[in-house]
Amino acid sequence: MIFLTISSFVFFTALVGVITWFLTRGDDHSSSDGYFLAGRSLTGGYIAGSLMLTNLSTEQLVGLNGAAFADGICVMAWEVIAAVSLVVMALFFLPRYLKSGIATVPQFLENRFDAGTRTITTMIFIFAYAVILLPIILYTGATGLSGILNMSDLTGIQSHTIILWGTVWLIGIIGSIYAIFGGLRTVAVSDTINGFGLLVGGVLIVYFGLQAVNSDGMVAALSELKSAHPEKFNSIGGTKQSVPFSTLFTGVLLLNLFYWTTNQQIIQRTFGASSLAEGQKGVLYAGMLKVLAPLILVLPGIIAFHLYSADGLRKDHAYGHLVQDVLPAPLAGFFAAVMVGAILSSFNSALNSTATLFSLGVYRDMINPTADQKQVIRSGKIFGCVIAVTSMTVAPMLAGQDSIFGYLQKMNGLYFIPIFSVMLVGMLTKRVPAVAAKVGLIVGFSAIALGYFVPALSSYVNSMHEFHFLGLVFVSLIVLMLVIGQLSPREMEWEHRYSGDVDLTAWPLAWPLGIGLVAFVLAVYLWFADLSVLNG
Questions:
Q1: Which of 199, 120, 196, 142 is nearest to 365 (CA)?
Q2: Which of 95, 223, 312, 368 has its CA 20 to 30 A from that of 403?
Q3: What does pTM read for this prediction?
Q4: In this structure, what CATH number is given to the domain that contains residue 96?
């Protein structure tokens, strides 16, 4: 049985690698645009697939299902509100990014403010990816994969620590090869292939999980789940849950908006769009998939609660335990391969973005301004290797967190909020000066760090909920920058110039589809809403 699981795992993992190599073997990796932006050749399907799989990795599969295990479907907020954020990205942010012809978010901020703003933003991104994002991806990936493949029985090693370190380094090395030597198109193609596998695998988990609940069929199983645990099927989060309803309008909304409109790791593939229309197609297709994502990112957690809550199972182990328990051996190997693909997708996307930020924002602009294309790309590969080793070393040290998904969102706030506030002010105003952006970045990052890590201040943050704290910091930063803009405005209004790199003709269906997605999200919330929980 173990041999069958491992054989199917190796087969599907190798198959993705071979197909990706075949489709990308002729790609241009000798120029910055070719390596970092896929030669601006990505179409809607590749963009949607890459966006989805970069997001739907193990910190989502393991972490969000773990949150659902504890709190129920109210945690779907992270997914369905993402669809609204993707609409904002397609209709507002993406046209402005593509008009600028940029490769990184800090480049846009340099165009709008100055080189100093770009430098500060680049450093914040690199620090956050190396110390927060990449280690979490590796840790959750190793935890999920160990559960699915039952690594203790497979290897004969009983030490959880040894298995964790070994799995982290295995995933990290494979992901580094994709990101460092393949470039963005290789990442996007492998993401799309794995994304299809992940959707199939995720649906299979739901099917077999519901069969384990009630063999009379999916409808009977869902009815049994809702009857046994009605509190798990309320879209409105209570005050003591991880996503209280009121936070949807502060921290949850802001974190989602940054993630899908300003986060370099995610939106870099949209910068490689062949046209605005193709970019909008990809972003909105991804939005359509996000509203369906709770089926594979939330429902399995509730199924696991129904099956295993009496066993004292830790919530972040719920998903891996369910997969191992309900999937037949050949499919377990297939899903493990898909999981590895998801892990690699998020890891290599973040690593590729980190290398891009360093090469174009630090090496070429600050260290070696006369560098040619080969030197710029080589610097990214070397730096990528250093960051990969750093993240593989830090990842196992995350063991012991109460909720890895909650930890991720909390730490994301450190850099999401200040960068997003500066980006929004930059896009919506023309006279706010560069000094305001620098103050916003430094004050925002420092204020959130102090609120999180200084005990005398963290007690106040916890009393108001950390997501409300993020909302308060965001509003304060906006006001601060606007006041500076009034007191010391730019001498001349900022002019947003068109670079001419891509066709900016919009997709005719962008607005109708965007409005439809927002309406669907509202309908989902109303369908599952029970406001009585707010009185508890």
A1: 120
A2: 223
A3: 0.80
A4: 1.20.1730.10
